[in-house]
Write a structure and sequence with these properties.
By secondary structure, the chain is mainly α. It contains 7 helices and no strands. The chain is elongated.
Protein backbone atom coordinates (compact mmCIF):
# COMPACT_ATOMS: atom_id res chain seq x y z
CA UNK A 1 0.00 0.00 0.00
CA UNK A 2 3.04 2.25 0.12
CA UNK A 3 3.40 2.84 3.87
CA UNK A 4 6.91 1.36 3.98
CA UNK A 5 8.17 3.60 1.17
CA UNK A 6 6.39 6.61 2.65
CA UNK A 7 7.95 5.93 6.05
CA UNK A 8 11.45 5.65 4.56
CA UNK A 9 11.12 8.88 2.59
CA UNK A 10 9.65 10.71 5.56
CA UNK A 11 12.68 9.92 7.72
CA UNK A 12 14.92 11.81 5.27
CA UNK A 13 12.83 14.98 5.55
CA UNK A 14 14.38 15.58 8.99
CA UNK A 15 17.46 16.86 7.11
CA UNK A 16 15.49 20.06 6.44
CA UNK A 17 16.88 21.14 9.83
CA UNK A 18 20.24 21.67 8.07
CA UNK A 19 19.52 25.41 7.98
CA UNK A 20 20.02 25.62 11.74
CA UNK A 21 23.77 25.46 11.11
CA UNK A 22 25.72 28.17 9.35
CA UNK A 23 27.98 26.01 7.19
CA UNK A 24 27.18 26.42 3.47
CA UNK A 25 28.31 22.94 2.40
CA UNK A 26 26.41 21.20 5.20
CA UNK A 27 23.26 23.18 4.39
CA UNK A 28 23.58 22.20 0.71
CA UNK A 29 24.06 18.49 1.52
CA UNK A 30 21.15 18.50 3.98
CA UNK A 31 18.90 20.11 1.38
CA UNK A 32 19.85 17.47 -1.20
CA UNK A 33 19.06 14.68 1.29
CA UNK A 34 15.74 16.36 2.07
CA UNK A 35 14.83 16.49 -1.63
CA UNK A 36 15.71 12.79 -1.95
CA UNK A 37 13.44 12.09 1.02
CA UNK A 38 10.48 13.93 -0.50
CA UNK A 39 11.06 12.17 -3.84
CA UNK A 40 10.94 8.76 -2.13
CA UNK A 41 7.89 9.95 -0.22
CA UNK A 42 6.22 10.71 -3.56
CA UNK A 43 6.60 7.08 -4.67
CA UNK A 44 4.98 5.91 -1.46
CA UNK A 45 2.15 8.42 -1.82
CA UNK A 46 1.60 7.34 -5.41
CA UNK A 47 0.91 3.78 -4.22
CA UNK A 48 -1.16 5.00 -1.28
CA UNK A 49 -3.19 7.31 -3.53
CA UNK A 50 -4.76 4.32 -5.29
CA UNK A 51 -6.69 3.63 -2.09
CA UNK A 52 -7.22 7.08 -0.58
CA UNK A 53 -8.39 10.32 -2.18
CA UNK A 54 -6.72 12.28 0.65
CA UNK A 55 -3.39 10.63 -0.19
CA UNK A 56 -3.96 11.67 -3.80
CA UNK A 57 -4.41 15.30 -2.74
CA UNK A 58 -1.28 15.03 -0.59
CA UNK A 59 0.58 13.58 -3.58
CA UNK A 60 -0.11 16.70 -5.66
CA UNK A 61 0.88 19.07 -2.84
CA UNK A 62 4.02 17.05 -2.06
CA UNK A 63 5.05 17.08 -5.73
CA UNK A 64 4.88 20.88 -5.71
CA UNK A 65 6.73 20.99 -2.38
CA UNK A 66 9.45 18.67 -3.69
CA UNK A 67 9.89 20.88 -6.77
CA UNK A 68 10.24 23.98 -4.57
CA UNK A 69 12.75 22.15 -2.34
CA UNK A 70 14.76 21.05 -5.39
CA UNK A 71 14.83 24.62 -6.72
CA UNK A 72 16.04 25.83 -3.33
CA UNK A 73 18.79 23.18 -3.35
CA UNK A 74 19.89 24.39 -6.80
CA UNK A 75 20.00 28.00 -5.58
CA UNK A 76 22.00 26.93 -2.53
CA UNK A 77 24.41 24.98 -4.74
CA UNK A 78 24.90 27.87 -7.15
CA UNK A 79 25.77 30.15 -4.27
CA UNK A 80 28.11 27.59 -2.67
CA UNK A 81 30.03 27.12 -5.93
CA UNK A 82 30.15 30.95 -6.32
CA UNK A 83 28.10 30.96 -9.52
CA UNK A 84 25.45 33.13 -7.87
CA UNK A 85 26.00 36.08 -5.54
CA UNK A 86 24.89 35.84 -1.93
CA UNK A 87 22.55 38.82 -2.36
CA UNK A 88 20.72 37.13 -5.25
CA UNK A 89 20.53 33.84 -3.35
CA UNK A 90 19.07 35.51 -0.26
CA UNK A 91 16.51 37.43 -2.35
CA UNK A 92 15.27 34.25 -4.06
CA UNK A 93 15.19 32.22 -0.86
CA UNK A 94 13.18 35.00 0.80
CA UNK A 95 10.20 34.11 -1.41
CA UNK A 96 10.96 30.38 -1.48
CA UNK A 97 10.75 30.06 2.31
CA UNK A 98 7.17 31.34 2.29
CA UNK A 99 6.19 29.15 -0.68
CA UNK A 100 7.66 26.05 0.95
CA UNK A 101 5.92 26.79 4.27
CA UNK A 102 2.57 27.24 2.48
CA UNK A 103 3.00 23.99 0.48
CA UNK A 104 4.20 22.05 3.53
CA UNK A 105 0.87 22.48 5.33
CA UNK A 106 -1.52 20.72 2.88
CA UNK A 107 1.10 18.12 1.89
CA UNK A 108 1.62 16.95 5.48
CA UNK A 109 -1.84 17.47 6.95
CA UNK A 110 -3.53 15.61 4.09
CA UNK A 111 -1.01 12.76 4.34
CA UNK A 112 -1.76 12.09 7.98
CA UNK A 113 -5.48 12.63 7.53
CA UNK A 114 -5.26 9.91 4.86
CA UNK A 115 -3.55 7.65 7.42
CA UNK A 116 -6.29 8.44 9.96
CA UNK A 117 -8.98 7.74 7.37
CA UNK A 118 -7.37 4.43 6.47
CA UNK A 119 -7.29 3.47 10.15
CA UNK A 120 -10.98 4.35 10.40
CA UNK A 121 -11.89 2.29 7.34
CA UNK A 122 -9.90 -0.73 8.51
CA UNK A 123 -11.14 -0.24 12.10
CA UNK A 124 -7.57 -0.11 13.40
CA UNK A 125 -7.71 2.00 16.57
CA UNK A 126 -3.94 2.48 16.91
CA UNK A 127 -3.59 3.86 13.39
CA UNK A 128 -6.70 5.99 13.76
CA UNK A 129 -5.58 7.57 17.06
CA UNK A 130 -2.02 8.21 15.96
CA UNK A 131 -3.23 9.51 12.62
CA UNK A 132 -5.52 12.16 14.10
CA UNK A 133 -2.82 13.06 16.65
CA UNK A 134 -0.39 13.66 13.80
CA UNK A 135 -2.95 15.78 11.97
CA UNK A 136 -3.40 18.03 15.04
CA UNK A 137 0.33 18.29 15.80
CA UNK A 138 1.23 18.98 12.16
CA UNK A 139 -1.43 21.66 11.93
CA UNK A 140 -0.08 23.38 15.06
CA UNK A 141 3.48 23.22 13.73
CA UNK A 142 2.40 24.67 10.38
CA UNK A 143 1.21 27.82 12.18
CA UNK A 144 4.66 28.24 13.75
CA UNK A 145 6.40 27.33 10.49
CA UNK A 146 4.41 29.82 8.42
CA UNK A 147 5.01 32.58 10.98
CA UNK A 148 8.76 31.87 10.79
CA UNK A 149 8.71 32.23 7.00
CA UNK A 150 7.18 35.72 7.08
CA UNK A 151 9.40 38.81 6.65
CA UNK A 152 9.37 39.50 10.40
CA UNK A 153 12.33 39.09 12.74
CA UNK A 154 11.08 36.81 15.53
CA UNK A 155 14.51 36.24 17.03
CA UNK A 156 16.92 33.33 17.32
CA UNK A 157 14.99 31.73 20.19
CA UNK A 158 11.91 31.36 18.01
CA UNK A 159 14.03 29.74 15.27
CA UNK A 160 15.46 27.20 17.74
CA UNK A 161 11.96 26.42 19.05
CA UNK A 162 10.76 25.94 15.48
CA UNK A 163 13.50 23.46 14.63
CA UNK A 164 13.07 21.65 17.94
CA UNK A 165 9.34 21.25 17.26
CA UNK A 166 10.13 20.07 13.74
CA UNK A 167 12.38 17.27 15.01
CA UNK A 168 9.80 16.16 17.60
CA UNK A 169 7.05 16.29 14.98
CA UNK A 170 9.10 14.27 12.48
CA UNK A 171 9.71 11.53 15.06
CA UNK A 172 6.05 11.43 16.09
CA UNK A 173 4.81 11.32 12.49
CA UNK A 174 7.37 8.67 11.56
CA UNK A 175 5.95 6.50 14.36
CA UNK A 176 2.47 7.06 12.93
CA UNK A 177 3.57 5.91 9.47
CA UNK A 178 5.39 2.89 10.91
CA UNK A 179 2.26 1.97 12.89
CA UNK A 180 0.20 2.12 9.68
CA UNK A 181 2.80 -0.05 7.92
CA UNK A 182 2.83 -2.57 10.76
CA UNK A 183 -0.89 -2.90 11.47
CA UNK A 184 -2.51 -2.35 8.08
CA UNK A 185 -0.03 -4.23 5.87
CA UNK A 186 0.49 -7.39 7.93
CA UNK A 187 1.17 -9.83 5.12
CA UNK A 188 1.11 -9.90 1.33
CA UNK A 189 -2.08 -11.90 0.90
CA UNK A 190 -4.05 -9.88 3.43
CA UNK A 191 -2.71 -6.64 1.97
CA UNK A 192 -3.77 -7.71 -1.51
CA UNK A 193 -7.32 -8.54 -0.42
CA UNK A 194 -7.69 -5.46 1.79
CA UNK A 195 -6.20 -3.16 -0.84
CA UNK A 196 -8.62 -4.43 -3.47
CA UNK A 197 -11.54 -3.91 -1.09
CA UNK A 198 -10.45 -0.36 -0.21
CA UNK A 199 -9.78 0.44 -3.86
CA UNK A 200 -13.29 -0.60 -4.90
CA UNK A 201 -14.79 1.25 -1.94
CA UNK A 202 -12.91 4.44 -2.86
CA UNK A 203 -14.09 4.22 -6.48
CA UNK A 204 -17.71 3.83 -5.34
CA UNK A 205 -17.40 6.84 -3.04
CA UNK A 206 -15.91 8.98 -5.82
CA UNK A 207 -18.77 8.07 -8.15
CA UNK A 208 -21.24 9.33 -5.58
Amino acid sequence: MGFGITFTGYLFTVFDTGFIVNEALLVFVCKILCVIGYTVLLFGLYRFSRYSKFAKYSLFATAALDAAMAFEAVIQGLWFFRIMSEQTMVSIRFYLFTAIAVLFAPAQILLFYAVFDMGRQTECEKVKKRGIRSVAATGAFCIVNTAASLPVNLGDVFAVIRYGLFIVLTIMNAVTLYTAYRYICLDTELEKEQSEFLKQRTFRQEKK
